[in-house]
Amino acid sequence: MTSIKHDGFPFQTHEMHDLCVCGGSPATAASARRSQAAYEKMLERTPYFQQWRLNANAIKRWSIQHLDQLLVQFEQNLQKKGVEVLWAADAEEANRLVLEIAQKHNVRKVVKSKSLVSEELQVNKALKAHGIESIETDLGEFIIQLAGQRPTHVVIPALHLTAEQIGRLFSEKLGEKFTDVHEELTAIARKHLRNHFLTADMGISGVNFGFADTGTFTVIENEGNAGLSTSTPPVHVALMGIEKVIPSVNYLPYFLSVLPRSATDQKLTAYTHIFHGPTAGRKMYVILIDNGRTNILEDPFTQDTLFCIRCGACMNACPVYHRVGGWAYGWIYPGPIGEALNPHLCGMKKAGKLPFASSLCEKCAQVCPVKVNLPEQLVHLRNVSAQTTGSPMNQWRQAVLWRMWSFVNETPARYRFSMGLARIGARMTRWIPKPLHCFELRTWAQGRAIPQPQGKPFREWWRKRKKMR
User: Fold this and answer.
1) Angle in degrees, CA 282, 256, 137, rounded to 5
2) Which value, in Å, is the radius of gyration of the alpha carbons in the chain?
3) With b meaning 16 or more CB within 10 Å and e meaning fewer, what string describes 260-290?
4) Residue 144 CB neighbour total at 10 angstroms
5) Residues 317, 366 contacting (CB under 8 angstroms)
6) Which phi and psi (to 5°) does residue 325 adopt?
7) Contact present, 145 and 113 (Cβ < 8 Å)
8) Left (φ > 0), alpha (ψ -120 to 50) or beta: where does 175 sit?
9) For residue 311, what is the DSSP state?
10) Strand pairing category for 271-275 and 216-221
11) Which residues contact 404 (CB under 8 A, 6 or more apart)?
């Protein structure tokens, strides 16, 4: 493994330009707004960023179009280096392979670096069911694991928690004296994690990018925990979605330029680990995981979704995510990318309504570092969902409702009348028990309060304002 500690940006901007490739909680909303403001300032001081986005998009597009060839080449070159390569069609098979590796090496404790695909597979749950302790070592994931929660953001898992809440959690779960000072909280986590690194029997990581031509792969991080998780235990298991392979390590600089800038407004992440194979006396496994990704490949309208490099920029820009937070999306991937990915990975029956959880404002497409046109994907998936989900009765009812909606919005008079009825209906819902609400409103209201009209309608305000002139 080669680990590079980045003290500054090693690539000259003009060199990157020339190497062109052809081919919620209040804390959540506030943090997302800060990230978006930082992103806009980054654009001002990074003149070549848009060119890097074009290059990254071209690389990913070519890679996805030639995925079958690249995966075979990647596997062959990994095996030449002494890496055991395994394939998993779904989460069940992936977890079975992880457990078989753990049992083969008598593993009792696992340390994990941050890995979204491991969250997707629920690896911790599978290990725990077989008596194997699994410790998250990323600070945010460590906090979430202690709290018994799911991440709310792909880059900042504990985004929704305040320092005070984390301090009380550490006091309750770790027996530490309460503090809400950031540096002290970090020191507490470091103290408790250090022993786990030294006593673990196996380390599990994700993979940011795999390089077909060399049979190597990279893990990018800021805390150093991934380096310890993968180098200290005698066994390293890397979980990799099949879409993460690209042709060559020579293209990595483009992604190292756009990913951290889009995710955390950094020029580069603190550590870039490149794995060349197992060191003497150690074992390395790479599990290549489908788990619904070939479903995306089969649909030419949605293949671009596989370009995603998990930076979280679309969430930071999304007004819907700001409002509802990550848990509202029901699975590991929240925000606009979750709306596009989850229906494929979970199935339309479970996640077919997610593509409708968007205003289609296009902010996500404007900030995506690999230029995934998420609004276009969501419109397509809405059509697929409408054709494939629900009973014939539900589809008939929705068709009637949309015809009614169209009718009342055809003229100003009908619109004013319908909005008046809606205001009256919204006020009445306060007095009607939730089990008696009709149709989808009953389900929607289970965990939400019905919004109440605030003040006078805009039309009245505007009419009075015109008279005052």
Assistant:
1) 45
2) 25
3) bbbbbbbebbebbbbbebbeeeebbbbbbbb
4) 21
5) yes
6) 75, 175
7) no
8) left
9) -
10) antiparallel
11) none
Q: How far apart are CA 299 and CA 114, in angstroms?
A: 30
Token pair listed for 436: 């008696």
> How many residues can be counted in the chain?
469
pLDDT at 97: 98
Give the tokens for residue 332. 């590991």
pLDDT value at residue 447: 61
Measure the CA–CA gap between 252 and 269, rounded to whole angstroms.
Answer: 13
Torsion region of 130: left, alpha or beta (phi above 0 gives left; psi -120 to 50 gives alpha): alpha
- According to DSSP, residue 131 is labeled T
Angle at 140 between CA 137 and CA 142, to 5 degrees: 40
Side-chain-side CA neighbours of residue 221 (13 Å): 24
Contacts (Cβ under 8 Å, ≥6 apart) of 166: 143, 158, 180, 185
- Say which DSSP state 390 is in: S
Segments of the chain scoring below 70 in pLDDT: 1-25, 27-29, 389-395, 434-449, 469
Other C-beta atoms within 10 Å of 224: how many?
Answer: 16
Token pair listed for 464: 């009075």
Residue with tokens 């009348």: 417
Residue at token pair 């030639």: 66
CA torsion sign, 336 to 159 to 138 to 258? positive
Residues 336-384 have pLDDT tens digits of 999 999 998 888 888 988 999 999 999 999 999 999 999 999 999 998 8
Helices (H), 130-269: 139-147, 163-174, 182-199, 225-231, 252-264
- CA-wise closest residue to 182 among 167, 198, 161: 167
Distance CA 25, CA 273 (A): 34
pLDDT of residue 174: 96
Contact at 8 Å (CB) between 286 and 236?
Answer: no
